[in-house]
Fold:
Amino acid sequence: MPELPDVAVFARYLESNALNRRVTAVRASDERLAGKGGAGALAERMEGRYLVAARRHGKHLFTRLDDEGWLEWHFGMTGHLDSGSAADPEPSTGHVRLTFDDGGRLDLFAPRKLGHIQPVADPDAFIGEQGLGVDALDPSLNSERFAGLAAHRRKAVKCWLIDQGVIAGIGNLYSDEILFQARLHPRRRVSDLDQEALEGLRDHMDRVLRTAIEAGAEPAALPAGYLLPQRKVGASCPRCGGPLAGERVCGRTAWLCPVCQPPP
DNA sequence: TTCCATGTTCCGCA
DNA sequence: TTGCGGAACATGGA
Structure:
Protein backbone atom coordinates (compact mmCIF):
# COMPACT_ATOMS: atom_id res chain seq x y z
CA MET A 1 0.00 0.00 0.00
CA PRO A 2 2.55 2.53 -1.02
CA GLU A 3 1.53 5.93 0.26
CA LEU A 4 3.85 8.30 2.07
CA PRO A 5 4.31 6.18 5.22
CA ASP A 6 5.00 3.05 3.19
CA VAL A 7 7.55 4.83 1.02
CA ALA A 8 9.19 6.30 4.13
CA VAL A 9 9.56 2.76 5.46
CA PHE A 10 10.91 1.62 2.08
CA ALA A 11 13.46 4.45 2.20
CA ARG A 12 14.65 3.27 5.59
CA TYR A 13 14.75 -0.32 4.35
CA LEU A 14 16.75 0.67 1.31
CA GLU A 15 19.19 2.63 3.46
CA SER A 16 19.81 -0.47 5.58
CA ASN A 17 19.90 -2.96 2.74
CA ALA A 18 21.31 -1.30 -0.36
CA LEU A 19 23.40 1.76 0.40
CA ASN A 20 27.12 1.62 -0.26
CA ARG A 21 27.01 -1.73 -2.00
CA ARG A 22 28.30 -2.00 -5.54
CA VAL A 23 25.66 -2.91 -8.12
CA THR A 24 26.94 -5.56 -10.48
CA ALA A 25 23.77 -6.42 -12.39
CA VAL A 26 20.29 -5.01 -12.96
CA ARG A 27 17.55 -7.08 -14.49
CA ALA A 28 13.98 -5.98 -15.09
CA SER A 29 11.41 -8.69 -15.75
CA ASP A 30 9.30 -6.22 -17.70
CA GLU A 31 10.45 -3.34 -19.82
CA ARG A 32 7.98 -0.87 -18.35
CA LEU A 33 9.34 -1.37 -14.83
CA ALA A 34 12.55 0.30 -15.97
CA GLY A 35 10.83 3.57 -16.82
CA LYS A 36 10.96 5.53 -20.03
CA GLY A 37 14.52 4.60 -20.98
CA GLY A 38 13.90 0.88 -20.75
CA ALA A 39 15.74 -1.95 -19.06
CA GLY A 40 18.94 -1.64 -21.07
CA ALA A 41 19.44 2.00 -20.20
CA LEU A 42 18.70 1.38 -16.53
CA ALA A 43 21.19 -1.46 -16.32
CA GLU A 44 23.83 0.55 -18.14
CA ARG A 45 23.24 3.47 -15.82
CA MET A 46 23.50 1.42 -12.63
CA GLU A 47 26.00 -1.33 -13.18
CA GLY A 48 29.26 -0.68 -11.40
CA ARG A 49 27.74 2.14 -9.35
CA TYR A 50 26.94 2.48 -5.65
CA LEU A 51 23.75 3.86 -4.16
CA VAL A 52 24.98 6.41 -1.66
CA ALA A 53 21.89 8.25 -0.37
CA ALA A 54 18.11 8.03 -0.31
CA ARG A 55 15.44 10.69 -0.03
CA ARG A 56 11.68 10.74 -0.42
CA HIS A 57 9.15 13.17 -1.81
CA GLY A 58 5.51 12.17 -1.53
CA LYS A 59 5.20 8.62 -2.82
CA HIS A 60 8.48 8.87 -4.76
CA LEU A 61 11.79 7.54 -3.54
CA PHE A 62 15.08 8.89 -4.90
CA THR A 63 18.49 7.30 -4.59
CA ARG A 64 21.72 9.09 -5.42
CA LEU A 65 24.45 7.27 -7.30
CA ASP A 66 28.11 7.70 -6.47
CA ASP A 67 28.62 9.53 -9.77
CA GLU A 68 26.03 12.14 -8.72
CA GLY A 69 23.15 10.92 -10.85
CA TRP A 70 19.86 9.83 -9.32
CA LEU A 71 17.26 7.11 -9.66
CA GLU A 72 13.57 7.63 -9.08
CA TRP A 73 11.58 4.74 -7.64
CA HIS A 74 7.81 4.42 -7.70
CA PHE A 75 5.81 1.58 -6.23
CA GLY A 76 2.46 1.78 -7.97
CA MET A 77 -0.35 0.07 -6.12
CA THR A 78 1.40 -3.04 -4.88
CA GLY A 79 5.13 -2.50 -5.17
CA HIS A 80 7.55 -3.12 -2.32
CA LEU A 81 11.20 -3.87 -1.64
CA ASP A 82 12.71 -7.20 -0.73
CA SER A 83 16.34 -7.83 0.09
CA GLY A 84 18.15 -11.15 0.21
CA SER A 85 20.76 -13.28 -1.50
CA ALA A 86 21.60 -13.05 -5.19
CA ALA A 87 21.07 -16.80 -5.24
CA ASP A 88 17.39 -16.43 -4.33
CA PRO A 89 15.10 -17.41 -7.19
CA GLU A 90 13.71 -14.44 -9.08
CA PRO A 91 9.97 -13.85 -8.87
CA SER A 92 8.34 -15.11 -12.06
CA THR A 93 7.33 -11.61 -13.14
CA GLY A 94 6.89 -8.02 -12.06
CA HIS A 95 10.20 -7.15 -10.52
CA VAL A 96 13.54 -5.40 -10.96
CA ARG A 97 16.48 -7.11 -9.31
CA LEU A 98 19.66 -5.30 -8.30
CA THR A 99 22.53 -7.68 -7.64
CA PHE A 100 25.44 -6.53 -5.46
CA ASP A 101 29.06 -7.59 -5.63
CA ASP A 102 28.87 -9.00 -2.08
CA GLY A 103 26.37 -11.65 -3.14
CA GLY A 104 23.28 -9.76 -1.98
CA ARG A 105 20.33 -8.45 -3.93
CA LEU A 106 17.47 -5.99 -3.68
CA ASP A 107 14.24 -6.57 -5.58
CA LEU A 108 11.62 -4.00 -6.43
CA PHE A 109 8.71 -6.40 -6.47
CA ALA A 110 5.63 -5.07 -8.28
CA PRO A 111 3.34 -7.99 -9.06
CA ARG A 112 0.89 -5.79 -10.98
CA LYS A 113 3.69 -4.25 -12.98
CA LEU A 114 2.75 -0.74 -11.91
CA GLY A 115 5.81 1.06 -10.64
CA HIS A 116 9.34 1.60 -11.87
CA ILE A 117 12.94 2.53 -11.26
CA GLN A 118 14.29 5.09 -13.69
CA PRO A 119 17.34 7.35 -13.98
CA VAL A 120 16.71 11.04 -13.38
CA ALA A 121 19.18 13.90 -13.44
CA ASP A 122 17.95 15.61 -10.31
CA PRO A 123 15.10 14.97 -7.85
CA ASP A 124 14.06 18.61 -7.57
CA ALA A 125 13.85 18.95 -11.33
CA PHE A 126 11.81 15.75 -11.48
CA ILE A 127 9.46 17.02 -8.78
CA GLY A 128 8.99 20.22 -10.74
CA GLU A 129 8.42 18.48 -14.06
CA GLN A 130 5.87 16.15 -12.51
CA GLY A 131 4.10 19.07 -10.90
CA LEU A 132 4.23 17.49 -7.47
CA GLY A 133 3.08 19.56 -4.53
CA VAL A 134 4.83 20.03 -1.23
CA ASP A 135 5.61 16.84 0.64
CA ALA A 136 2.97 16.22 3.30
CA LEU A 137 5.63 16.08 6.02
CA ASP A 138 7.68 19.02 4.80
CA PRO A 139 8.50 21.19 7.84
CA SER A 140 7.54 24.28 5.87
CA LEU A 141 3.96 23.07 5.56
CA ASN A 142 2.69 25.04 8.56
CA SER A 143 -0.90 26.09 9.06
CA GLU A 144 -0.44 29.31 7.08
CA ARG A 145 0.92 27.52 4.06
CA PHE A 146 -1.72 24.81 4.41
CA ALA A 147 -4.47 27.42 4.47
CA GLY A 148 -2.92 29.03 1.41
CA LEU A 149 -3.10 25.74 -0.50
CA ALA A 150 -6.73 25.37 0.54
CA ALA A 151 -7.74 28.88 -0.48
CA HIS A 152 -10.32 29.04 -3.25
CA ARG A 153 -10.43 25.26 -3.60
CA ARG A 154 -13.97 24.08 -3.95
CA LYS A 155 -13.41 20.39 -4.47
CA ALA A 156 -14.23 17.73 -1.91
CA VAL A 157 -11.65 17.65 0.86
CA LYS A 158 -10.71 14.01 0.20
CA CYS A 159 -10.07 14.70 -3.47
CA TRP A 160 -7.99 17.72 -2.50
CA LEU A 161 -5.92 15.72 -0.01
CA ILE A 162 -5.02 13.01 -2.50
CA ASP A 163 -4.22 15.48 -5.30
CA GLN A 164 -0.46 14.99 -5.64
CA GLY A 165 -0.15 18.40 -7.26
CA VAL A 166 -1.26 20.10 -4.04
CA ILE A 167 0.24 17.94 -1.30
CA ALA A 168 2.35 14.94 -2.22
CA GLY A 169 2.16 11.63 -0.41
CA ILE A 170 -1.44 11.00 0.62
CA GLY A 171 -3.48 8.30 -1.11
CA ASN A 172 -6.87 6.76 -0.67
CA LEU A 173 -6.22 4.87 2.56
CA TYR A 174 -4.47 7.53 4.58
CA SER A 175 -6.85 10.23 3.39
CA ASP A 176 -9.63 8.16 4.97
CA GLU A 177 -7.67 7.92 8.21
CA ILE A 178 -6.82 11.63 8.30
CA LEU A 179 -10.42 12.66 7.66
CA PHE A 180 -11.69 10.22 10.25
CA GLN A 181 -9.31 11.59 12.87
CA ALA A 182 -10.22 15.14 11.89
CA ARG A 183 -13.94 14.22 11.98
CA LEU A 184 -14.49 15.59 8.51
CA HIS A 185 -16.71 13.98 5.92
CA PRO A 186 -14.70 13.30 2.73
CA ARG A 187 -17.24 15.21 0.66
CA ARG A 188 -16.96 18.41 2.65
CA ARG A 189 -15.79 21.19 0.37
CA VAL A 190 -12.39 22.62 1.17
CA SER A 191 -13.77 26.15 0.76
CA ASP A 192 -16.39 25.41 3.41
CA LEU A 193 -13.81 24.59 6.09
CA ASP A 194 -13.11 27.37 8.56
CA GLN A 195 -9.68 28.16 9.95
CA GLU A 196 -10.13 25.88 12.94
CA ALA A 197 -11.16 22.94 10.76
CA LEU A 198 -8.20 23.51 8.44
CA GLU A 199 -5.77 23.66 11.33
CA GLY A 200 -7.24 20.47 12.75
CA LEU A 201 -6.95 18.80 9.36
CA ARG A 202 -3.31 19.79 9.04
CA ASP A 203 -2.50 18.61 12.55
CA HIS A 204 -4.21 15.26 12.01
CA MET A 205 -2.51 14.82 8.64
CA ASP A 206 0.85 15.33 10.29
CA ARG A 207 0.07 13.11 13.26
CA VAL A 208 -1.46 10.26 11.24
CA LEU A 209 1.45 10.12 8.81
CA ARG A 210 4.08 10.21 11.56
CA THR A 211 2.23 7.62 13.60
CA ALA A 212 1.95 5.35 10.57
CA ILE A 213 5.67 5.62 9.89
CA GLU A 214 6.40 4.74 13.53
CA ALA A 215 4.12 1.74 13.11
CA GLY A 216 6.18 0.63 10.13
CA ALA A 217 3.20 1.43 7.86
CA GLU A 218 1.50 -1.69 9.17
CA PRO A 219 -2.22 -0.99 9.70
CA ALA A 220 -2.38 -3.68 12.38
CA ALA A 221 0.32 -1.83 14.35
CA LEU A 222 -1.59 1.46 14.43
CA PRO A 223 -2.91 2.69 17.77
CA ALA A 224 -6.40 1.85 18.96
CA GLY A 225 -8.93 4.29 17.60
CA TYR A 226 -7.57 4.21 14.05
CA LEU A 227 -9.90 3.56 11.15
CA LEU A 228 -7.49 1.81 8.78
CA PRO A 229 -7.61 -1.69 10.27
CA GLN A 230 -11.42 -1.51 10.19
CA ARG A 231 -11.65 -0.51 6.57
CA LYS A 232 -14.03 -3.22 5.40
CA VAL A 233 -17.69 -4.14 5.04
CA GLY A 234 -19.44 -4.76 8.32
CA ALA A 235 -16.83 -3.07 10.50
CA SER A 236 -17.72 -0.65 13.26
CA CYS A 237 -16.41 2.79 14.12
CA PRO A 238 -13.51 2.58 16.59
CA ARG A 239 -14.82 5.76 18.21
CA CYS A 240 -18.61 5.44 18.49
CA GLY A 241 -19.12 1.79 17.61
CA GLY A 242 -21.62 2.55 14.88
CA PRO A 243 -21.40 0.92 11.45
CA LEU A 244 -18.83 2.29 9.01
CA ALA A 245 -19.90 3.24 5.52
CA GLY A 246 -18.17 2.98 2.17
CA GLU A 247 -18.93 5.80 -0.24
CA ARG A 248 -17.72 6.57 -3.72
CA VAL A 249 -15.75 9.85 -3.59
CA CYS A 250 -13.47 11.08 -6.39
CA GLY A 251 -13.65 7.71 -8.05
CA ARG A 252 -12.45 5.78 -5.01
CA THR A 253 -14.09 4.07 -2.10
CA ALA A 254 -13.96 6.28 0.96
CA TRP A 255 -14.53 4.59 4.33
CA LEU A 256 -15.99 6.76 7.03
CA CYS A 257 -18.23 6.90 10.07
CA PRO A 258 -21.44 8.73 9.13
CA VAL A 259 -21.99 9.73 12.76
CA CYS A 260 -18.49 11.01 13.61
CA GLN A 261 -18.10 12.53 10.16
CA PRO A 262 -21.48 14.07 9.38
CA PRO A 263 -22.10 14.68 5.68
CA PRO A 264 -22.13 18.26 4.40
C1' DT B 1 -17.55 -15.27 -13.61
C1' DT B 2 -17.67 -10.59 -12.18
C1' DC B 3 -16.21 -6.95 -9.53
C1' DC B 4 -12.97 -4.52 -6.98
C1' DA B 5 -8.33 -2.91 -5.47
C1' DT B 6 -3.62 0.97 -2.22
C1' DG B 7 -0.98 3.75 -7.92
C1' DT B 8 -0.84 7.42 -12.22
C1' DT B 9 -2.35 9.40 -16.65
C1' DC B 10 -5.21 10.55 -20.23
C1' DC B 11 -9.52 12.18 -22.27
C1' DG B 12 -13.97 14.44 -22.71
C1' DC B 13 -17.44 17.14 -20.58
C1' DA B 14 -19.45 20.68 -17.78
C1' DT C 1 -9.52 27.47 -15.04
C1' DT C 2 -11.37 24.03 -12.24
C1' DG C 3 -13.51 19.91 -11.19
C1' DC C 4 -15.38 15.51 -12.28
C1' DG C 5 -16.09 10.99 -14.22
C1' DG C 6 -14.49 7.36 -16.82
C1' DA C 7 -11.15 4.49 -19.01
C1' DA C 8 -6.73 2.58 -19.29
C1' DC C 9 -2.65 0.20 -17.47
C1' DA C 10 -1.81 -5.34 -15.20
C1' DT C 11 -2.85 -8.72 -12.10
C1' DG C 12 -4.81 -11.10 -8.22
C1' DG C 13 -8.25 -11.91 -4.77
C1' DA C 14 -12.96 -12.16 -2.96
Summary: The radius of gyration of chain A is 20 Å. The CA atoms of residues 2 and 189 of chain A lie 26 Å apart. Residues 30, 32, 76-78, 93-94, 110-114, 153-156, 159, 250-251 of chain A lie near DNA strand C (CB under 10 Å from a C1'). Chain A has a mean pLDDT of 93.
